Amino acid sequence: MGTRPILPYDCDPAMLEPSYDPPLSSCALCGSAQLSEHDWDLRGNHIHRCRDCRVQFMNPQYSDAHLAEFYANYGWKDGEMCAAPKKGLPGSREMSKQRAFGLILKHASPGRLLTIGSGDGLELSVARGLGFRVEGYDIDPKIGAAIAERVQAPVHSGKFTEVPFDDASFDVVYMDQVLEHLKRPAEYLQNCHRILRSDGLLYLGQPNIGSISNRTKTLLGRLGLKGKRRGKHYASRHHIFYYSPAVLCRLLRRQYGFDILVVRGSLKPQANPVTPLLSRWFPNLDSGFLVLARKRKSSAMIAVEPNRLAGAQGAEAVG
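Below the sequence we write its predicted structure tokens.
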């Protein structure tokens, strides 16, 4: 595998001299043209909000060329894929994956499972150990090949909507810390619905822009009390969309044909045991959250009009 530039996981896209698309004229998730400016951050990126579905997103967004360059080097060292950074408690990543698949198994038997944005392959290994027939997806063919070699499992690559998955062919689709990276999340959610079997499960884990902590940071920024750290919680170096539990659950129900089974704070082990306990019922106490949803029988999705989305052509990016 050829040598690639070394970029740390916490590198700033400014190092790559980011380029941007034209501003979006409508919401990429519900198609509404009712957009308003909501905030801005330390990098000068503007955060808009859809007045209809209430989702927040960077606008304008990074160009496909910039994101392709960023993700081509993200998580590589000396030309080889390296593991994700070790943050939090020892073993917390593997434990959180174990808990996630344990939650899924409360609602379904092990079956065919697709992970989107397969990272370093940990989730594939954990799921297979619990009896799932695992497959992965990563947009970059070289990264996909490295993951496949590491975990000895099929990993698909290319544009997600063009991968030839059969309709109703998966029991579970798993996306953990992926949805916030996508420029065209509607395409992913619609395709997940298509490839899931009747009563199939969709697992989504993402940061919680509606958490008490993040709401407080937004307020302090608007009051001018965050200084050069204003909007740092948006992580706009690579996060593009910002979800809260209420917004994402409403979108899944109304727009994408899913029923919500579980919504709660993240399953990541934390030093403070109170937050994970309370966030089972009050997810906005946690800075991350998960949704487990079931494909609704005989459901029709509302298509987002692509011609209303400025800068919606080209490649996608998966973190």
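Residues 1-14, 306-319 have pLDDT under 50 and may be disordered.
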